[in-house]
Design brief:
The protein is mainly alpha-helical. Helices cover 57% and strands 8% of the residues. It is built from 7 helices and 3 strands; from the N terminus they run αααααββααβ. Strands 1-2-3 form a 3-stranded antiparallel beta sheet, covered by helices on one side. It starts with a helix and ends with a strand. The chain binds zinc ion (ZN). The site of zinc ion (ZN) has 5 residues, from helix 5.
């Protein structure tokens, strides 16, 4: 899915659970954080006043957390670990990062974990898929994000869900119909 879709969908699903100002920052950040492996500058769809601080926090997380993680994973897995949608698109960093936040702020830790998992879920319905327990448990779907019209399906579904005021779990469940393949490795 596209960056703005991850962002909007995560807010749509978690909206009722947000109360503190920090909750919004955490959800904004973690909704697109796994894509830290492709985009050095993120949140391009947001106004500069929001984009700059979020980019700053993202790059700090990259330097403090992901670089050591990439080095350790690279040691075990080899250069493949540095490609897009590999070690950042897995439950491991979701668990580790949200555990750190949970230590200081439990509600934020849970929101961080939920946002990260939603990112993995939304990428799992696309053709390239996600290895949830990287390098194992490969789940991929039918959505072709390089097709000019298919890439907007998540936007259309979101607009429909907002218009019809459906509960968030309903379109989420519908997306599962797009899953094509689940295999262990
Ligand atoms: Zn992604």
């Amino acid at each position: 899915m596209l960056q703005h879709q991850h962002f909007l969908w995560t807010f749509f699903v978690l909206w009722d659970y947000l109360s503190q100002p920090w909750d919004y920052v955490i959800v904004a950040l973690f909704s697109v954080l796994p894509d830290i492996d492709i985009t050095p500058k993120k949140f391009q769809f947001l106004p500069k006043v929001l984009r700059d601080p979020l980019n700053l926090i993202t790059s700090l997380i990259w330097k403090i957390f992901y670089l050591p993680y990439v080095m350790v994973a690279g040691w075990f897995i080899g250069e493949k670990a540095l490609e897009h949608r590999t070690i950042t698109h897995a439950l491991w960093p979701a668990l580790m990062l949200s555990a750190i936040i949970y230590w200081f702020y439990p509600q934020g830790g849970l929101l961080a974990f939920a946002s990260y998992v939603l990112h993995l879920y939304f990428d799992s319905i696309t053709k390239s898929g996600v290895r949830w327990l990287y390098p194992w448990l490969y789940i991929r779907g039918r959505l072709n994000t390089s097709s000019w019209w298919q890439r907007f399906i998540p936007d259309v579904v979101l607009a429909g869900a907002l218009y019809l005021q459906t509960p968030a779990w309903l379109p989420l469940l519908l997306f599962a119909l797009l899953i094509k393949e689940v295999r262990l490795s």
